[in-house]
């Protein structure tokens, strides 16, 4: 504490920037007439009292002078202040007109994985009950859809980690595939360093050398997009060397015979050729994993954000199942979610194909249960819509003509951003609910100001499936309202107020509990009172006296027959290959100091100062070949557009690959050039691999 500083108040909160959900205390101080802030980490089971640089500075965006404080309407191309009453009337007029002219499904709703569980739940209900549209999806489609679909199919349920984080230090072999925890979830790194200290063998799979791969005993610097094929090589060795857990395979899985048959035609030299990983290294990795008594596999966007991301994750799950490394201490699968509520955001019905409790919108029993909870006629519940990017395509084709965006910046986060911008400009009415005038909000007809993590009470579910309560720390500034209040008020002016008569986040949570009851993500036994008392509770938690389930699948998987599904996976290749015109692979990712499209972190002066612009990592030999100097502006071009960023010459990247982070907009928006082909199963776009060319910027 500085000599003239005196504390004014302190409150407990939770970092909004990743799925670890680290707890902290924010202390407001006064020094020489000015307010300053101090952040202290608070002990909790996931972060163990750690905070990273993003958490330490999260308050800077929440307290930023650019925060929207009242509704704004666009008049003659400029935003003007408008009252809430007039804003709501305008929404009523425009939404009603659009649905009368173009049909109920002409309205779309686009949510986010940073919303609280209550807001994610209410947004799904709002789309289906207040707007009666089938078109709702959210940015989590780009975050977790491949891992979620793969886990659902293989295990019968999707929960990010099947085990607790605290088991990691006691496992013998760890595979980190396409995940850079050191930068993306820094407070998780000590779990892995402790595992190393305890003798674990760590294998990292990544086209780049990162702070995470430095921890590994073996770094497989794979060709982008070739993860599924690499795992076929690992499985081949595991079967050849006799590391299959026959008892586990027989008693707890199905599909092994088909996998065995499929692998008989896999040739290790061919795998080495197409993945860029030597046969020796494939053998080393497979042997280490196969003979370890305990082992865990973690995947993240590097494996998942591909046009065959679902298949890639399925093959990593095959690896765990054939070696019997599931349902035991130190054995399990983890999808390391990126978004602040990436886990909870996908459970409560803001996905096109889902209803709360991870129920299917196509299943008649599930539909009828949710219709009863919502008090509507089952016939009035719309059917399945389309995924996030497919909604953007529908907007471009003028099939969706009105859109409400909450907690997301789709103009920057979708692939092929030129098409997204063209589409959003065609909308008859765009409402954006945000903290700031984001790049998407710039295109809006109406912007509504919402509350930040410091003001918004609600529950969040971390990557382990542990539900916690984030308290509100300060009142909303200006005329700001919470997301849930905004939805309730829009529903009221649309004549649907009786379905949205909530007076608090807790009241919404109580309905969510009921809606999730009996579903795979069952929150029924979790209450605010319990969360305050216990700190956090794992789902599934079907009754108030249930302790919550920390480790899944100890005795049975969630399919009706209790067995997990093993599935043969082909050697998939990226949809877009390099050629003479576009000779390099582009892969994308994150840096430690920024979150998603940077709307919040680019406004934090401490975070922005560390990384204030985008860059392209280029290998020295590649840079020389294309005449590129270090720290100069370059153009990257794909079949869809071009961007301008600064070069960063480093031998940490493969010679055939360029890396650009995803947090910047406008000319630095890497999604102007990324690939918009989708995974056929989960509809994940192929963000992680496309073909580009690079050149020095000539002005
Ligand atoms: Fe914790 Fe993630 Fe926030 Fe960092 S960004 S403080 S790891 S929750």
UniProtKB/TrEMBL annotation:
The keyword Metal-binding applies. The lineage of its organism: Bacteria, Bacillati, Bacillota, Bacilli, Bacillales. PROSITE patterns: 4FE4S_MOW_BIS_MGD, MOLYBDOPTERIN_PROK_2. Keywords: 4Fe-4S, Iron, Iron-sulfur, Metal-binding. This is Assimilatory nitrate reductase catalytic subunit. Pfam families: Molybdop_Fe4S4, Molybdopterin, Molydop_binding. PANTHER family: NADH-QUINONE OXIDOREDUCTASE SUBUNIT G, RESPIRATORY NITRATE REDUCTASE. One of its GO terms (molecular function) is molybdopterin cofactor binding. InterPro entries: Asp_de-COase-like_dom_sf, MoPterin_dinucl-bd_dom, Mopterin_OxRdtase, Mopterin_OxRdtase_4Fe-4S_dom, Mopterin_OxRdtase_prok_CS, Prok_molybdopt-oxidoreductase. GO terms for biological process: respiratory electron transport chain. Residues 8-66 form the 4Fe-4S Mo/W bis-MGD-type domain. Its cofactor is Mo-bis(molybdopterin guanine dinucleotide). GO terms for cellular component: membrane. It comes from the Bacteria.
């Amino acid at each position: 504490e500085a000599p003239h500083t005196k504390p004014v108040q302190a409150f407990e909160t939770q970092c909004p920037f990743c799925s670890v959900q680290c707890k902290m205390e924010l202390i407001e101080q006064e020094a020489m007439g000015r307010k300053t802030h101090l952040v202290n980490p608070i002990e909790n089971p996931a972060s163990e009292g750690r905070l990273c640089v993003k958490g330490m500075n999260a308050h800077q965006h929440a307290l930023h002078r650019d925060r929207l404080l009242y509704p704004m309407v666009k008049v003659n191309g400029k935003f003007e202040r408008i009252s809430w009453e007039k804003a709501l009337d305008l929404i009523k007029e425009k939404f009603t007109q659009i649905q009368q002219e173009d049909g109920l499904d002409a309205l779309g709703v686009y949510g986010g994985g940073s919303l609280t569980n209550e807001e994610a739940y209410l947004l799904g209900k709002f789309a289906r009950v207040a707007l009666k549209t089938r078109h709702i999806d959210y940015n989590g489609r780009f975050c977790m859809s491949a891992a979620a679909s793969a886990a659902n199919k293989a295990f019968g349920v999707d929960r990010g980690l099947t085990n607790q984080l605290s088991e990691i230090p006691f496992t013998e072999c760890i595979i980190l595939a396409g995940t850079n925890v050191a930068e993306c979830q820094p407070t998780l790194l000590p779990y892995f360093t402790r595992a190393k200290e305890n003798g674990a063998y760590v294998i990292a799979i990544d086209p780049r050398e990162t702070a995470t791969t430095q921890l590994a005993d073996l770094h497989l610097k794979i060709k982008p997009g070739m993860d599924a094929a690499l795992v076929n090589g690992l499985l081949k060795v595991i079967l050849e060397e006799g590391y299959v857990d026959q008892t586990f395979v027989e008693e707890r899985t199905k599909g092994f015979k088909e996998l065995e048959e499929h692998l008989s035609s896999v040739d290790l030299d061919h795998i080495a050729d197409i993945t860029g990983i030597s046969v020796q290294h494939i053998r080393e990795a497979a042997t280490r994993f196969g003979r370890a008594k305990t082992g865990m596999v973690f995947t993240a966007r590097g494996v998942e954000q591909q046009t065959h991301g679902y298949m890639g994750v399925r093959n990593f799950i095959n690896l765990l199942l054939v070696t019997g490394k599931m349902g035991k201490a130190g054995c399990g699968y983890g999808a390391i979610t990126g978004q602040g509520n990436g886990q909870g955001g996908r459970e409560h019905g803001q996905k096109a194909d889902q209803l709360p409790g991870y129920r299917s919108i196509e299943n008649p029993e599930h539909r009828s249960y949710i219709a009863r909870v919502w008090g509507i006629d089952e016939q009035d519940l719309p059917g399945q819509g389309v995924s996030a990017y497919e909604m953007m395509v529908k907007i471009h084709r003028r099939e969706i003509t009105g859109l409400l965006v909450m907690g997301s910046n789709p103009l920057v986060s979708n692939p092929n951003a030129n098409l997204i911008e063209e589409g959003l400009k065609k909308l008859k009415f765009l409402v954006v609910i945000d903290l700031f005038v984001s790049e998407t909000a710039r295109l809006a007809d109406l912007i509504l100001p919402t509350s930040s993590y410091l003001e918004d009470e609600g529950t969040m579910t971390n990557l382990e499936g542990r539900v916690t309560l984030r308290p509100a720390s300060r009142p909303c500034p200006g005329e700001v309202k919470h997301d849930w209040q905004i939805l309730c008020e829009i529903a009221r002016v649309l004549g649907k107020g009786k379905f949205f008569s909530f007076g608090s986040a807790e009241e919404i949570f109580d309905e969510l509990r009921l809606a999730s009851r009996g579903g795979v993500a069952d929150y029924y036994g979790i209450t605010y009172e319990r969360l305050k008392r216990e700190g956090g509770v794992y789902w599934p938690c079907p009754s108030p006296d249930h302790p919550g389930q920390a480790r899944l699948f100890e005795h049975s998987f969630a399919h009706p027959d209790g067995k997990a599904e093993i599935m043969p996976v082909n050697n998939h290749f990226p949809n877009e290959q390099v050629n003479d015109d576009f000779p390099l692979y582009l892969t994308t990712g994150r840096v430690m100091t920024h979150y998603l499209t940077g709307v919040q972190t680019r406004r934090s002066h401490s975070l922005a100062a560390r990384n204030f612009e985008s860059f392209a990592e280029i290998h020295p030999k590649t840079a020389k070949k294309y005449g590129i100097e270090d720290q100069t502006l370059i153009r990257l071009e794909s079949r869809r557009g071009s961007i301008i960023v600064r070069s960063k010459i480093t031998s940490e990247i493969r010679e055939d690959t360029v890396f650009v982070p995803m947090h910047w907009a406008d000319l630095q928006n890497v999604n102007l050039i990324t690939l918009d082909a989708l995974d056929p199963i989960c509809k994940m776009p192929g963000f992680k691999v496309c073909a580009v060319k690079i050149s020095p910027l000539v002005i």
